[in-house]
Amino acid sequence: MKPTKNHVYCPASHKPKIMFATQKKADNFIKFNHDAILEESGIAPVRSYYCAVCCCWHVTSNPSQEAAERMDRRDQKKLSGIYESKTAEKVMNEHLLSMRQVQKQIESALEEGNEDLAWEKLREMRKLRDTMQRTSIKVLTNKITKKMREASEIYDRMYFILKYERRLAQYTDEQLQHLIDKPNKNKHEQQLAEIAEKQAQRRQQELMDKCAKLIVDNNNNFYSKLETGRVDEAEDTLNSMMGILKQLHKLGYQGDNLERIEAICARNQHWAKIARAVADRDDATIDAMGLEKDEMERVERWRNTYASLAQINELMGGIDAIEDIDELMDTIKVCRDTIKLLRKYIGKKFFKEYNMKLDQLTKESKDKQTETNDKQKKIQTTILLEIIGKIETMEVAFSHGDVSTCKKHYGECWNLIDLLDHSDEDARTVEMYVESWHDRLAAS
Questions:
Q1: Is 138 among the domain residues?
Q2: Residue 81 above 80 pLDDT?
Q3: DSSP letters along 2-65, please?
Q4: Average of pLDDT values for 73-89?
């Protein structure tokens, strides 16, 4: 009787076979069942053999040893094909997984607007696909063919997206919207509409991110204006920031830093109100706000800063009209001393134009002083030479007994001496010599 238990499908012989764990069990099966099987079916097993494919012992009715060797070679070839197929499937699975990962990287690069990176990743994907293609040609199985088809679909889809991403990047927002809203789209147009919609969303997100960044970037500018007493300008900056925030809310912005920019705007509103009260000397408003200790310290600093800046602006506004050099230098010194005190809180950059103007005025006043001194020195020298000339005339006249001429020039010398700068040593020497003529003339 034919056995019915322990049957498996043998890939090598392409039919059901009985599995035996050992050769002894297979041979015993032939020994005890051969006659019954032969009587029932007219054919019975005559020998056992090891099946490398099933990793067990089978029995066969073919007695030929030559046929056995041929079948062994067949089994080895089949087994090699199975191993090669398994290896190929593993390679295909690994490469297909890598392609899916690269696909995510391409999509991420597109979301970030990095088109160059997306194309670089597509080239990487193409290498994976080509490797899979070479593997699939060597080993043709349904599983491998299916994976190759999936890999090709992934690559073709990503290439299509990147190609049209580049083209649609040249479209205006209106043109993109036209593609999205077009009715009765075919398959190709539907794919384009999906790409256009994603690109439109990215453009809007990029615009909102830039607006959000603008608020953050303007924050330091806002406080710089408050610190330097430019409250009107700070309020204009704040109004611009609040307008941007309102527009972001309207567009449904959900960026990572939304809470941060909302907090920035709220805090800036608070400090703008305080700065306005300080600038207007509205102490009642400040008292009503119930400020903390550190906030009141800033208020006091702003009061002093605003007062000092007002003083500097007043001095700088009238400094060009000062003609007296000494008064001008005194005013410049006051301005520089005040700037030196304020630099601790405001910084050097704010006073750059002030310092440039003060440096220019200082240079001009020094040049003017030098020019005046040179002119005075020249006049001094001219007067001294004129007095010396008169003294020489007096000497000649006195030697001839012409006292009246001497007295005349003596009086003229004193008139000229009154015009001299007596801090000059030459002037004092000449004055002493002229004074010596007093006794000589009195004796004559």
A1: yes
A2: no
A3: ---SSEEEETTTTEEEE-BSSHHHHHHHHHHHHHHHHHHHS----EEEEETTTTEEEEES---H
A4: 61
